[in-house]
Design goal:
By secondary structure, the chain is an alpha/beta fold. Helices cover 36% and strands 25% of the residues. The chain has ten helices and 13 strands. The model has no long low-confidence stretch (mean pLDDT 94). Bound molecules: uridine 5'-triphosphate. Uridine 5'-triphosphate binds next to helix 5.
Length: 286
């Protein structure tokens, strides 16, 4: 069975992005010419996903609005001869089935993923964390899906090589490399560098057998009263097996202002006009 559903948990508070995220959801902050969530959804669509489940919360309905039709604006644009932006609105809304589910109470990433279950189809689900932006070709999620097709019963997660001292910030994995992927046998949440099983961290891309929902249900609340995704990943690794790979696309941490800015610069250089590149170079050279 193909992987058709992507859950995008986006109900977090975004405290690292304050004050920019005080009244605007951080996922709607721009990366070059569009909200960061748009790049994440584009990656999922490029990987063949047709069903996007946005897990949101209070004050975040703008995310769903971004992927919705806007008849008044479309009509206004067309009356002014601006057919291209009007066409883009229609194309975006038709590019997938968009479903919004609310988390209500932000009880952790595992809980947010569980909130997406009712809208999930198939025996495996993709999960994309919008804080992690992967830009460029091939789409990062596509790399994971290709590996998942070779081992459909196992989970597949995106990995990132980090400096040893950064292990405290991430879920870290250990295991054995087989060619381009790791067969994971250990996941440790934010270990001290000397306890990290390798230099590879978990990033925000996952293909998970839907058994993960049972594990999350059974698990109950862990540290800080939250339902942790890493605990369920441990269960999956033990039961079904877990593979990891480093996606080929470039990864940016769009969850803090500096990372978001760097991602925006990268996009501007890749997608902006020659004039924009020249202006940026002269401005930055001052
Ligand atoms: P983070 O904890 O890194 O993000 O969760 P955050 O809470 O949004 O941001 P900071 O750390 O306070 O700046 C990773 C992802 O999981 C989602 C977040 O929206 C983010 O995409 N998440 C987290 C939820 O959807 N619900 C939660 O309860 C927790």
């Amino acid at each position: 069975m193909t992987i058709s559903t992507a859950i995008i948990p986006a109900a977090g508070w975004g405290t690292r992005m304050l004050p920019a995220s005080f009244s605007v959801p951080k996922e709607l902050l721009p990366v070059f010419d569009r909200p960061s969530i748009d790049w994440v959804v584009a990656e999922a669509l490029a990987a063949g996903i047709t069903r996007i489940v946005l897990v949101t919360g209070r004050g975040k309905s703008g995310l769903m609005d971004h992927f919705d039709r806007h008849p008044h604006l479309e009509a206004l644009l067309r009356r002014s001869g601006k057919d291209q932006p009007a066409d883009l609105i229609v194309e975006r809304a038709r590019s997938a089935t968009f479903i919004e589910l609310r988390q209500g109470d932000a009880r952790g990433l595992g809980h947010a993923v569980l909130c997406g279950e009712p809208a999930t189809r198939g025996d495996r689900v993709a999960v994309l964390l919008p804080d992690d932006l992967y830009l460029g070709e091939p789409p990062a999620l596509g790399d994971l899906i290709a590996l998942s097709e070779q081992a459909p019963n196992k989970g597949v997660i995106g990995l990132l090589e980090v400096e040893p001292q950064d292990s405290r910030k991430y879920g870290m994995v250990g295991g054995t490399w087989q060619g381009d992927h790791m067969v994971i046998d250990r996941l440790v949440e934010k270990p001290e560098p000397h306890d990290a099983p390798s230099n590879y961290a978990i990033t925000g891309r996952y293909i998970l057998p839907t058994q993960v929902f049972d594990l999350l249900q059974q698990q109950g609340s862990g540290a800080l009263g939250e339902i942790q995704l890493t605990d369920a990943l441990q269960g999956l690794a033990l039961d079904k097996g877990m593979l990891g790979l480093v996606p080929k696309a470039r990864r940016f941490d769009a969850g803090d202002p500096e990372g978001l800015l760097i991602a925006g610069l990268r996009c501007a250089l890749d997608h902006g006009s020659a004039e924009l590149r020249a202006r940026a170079q002269s401005e930055l050279g001052r």
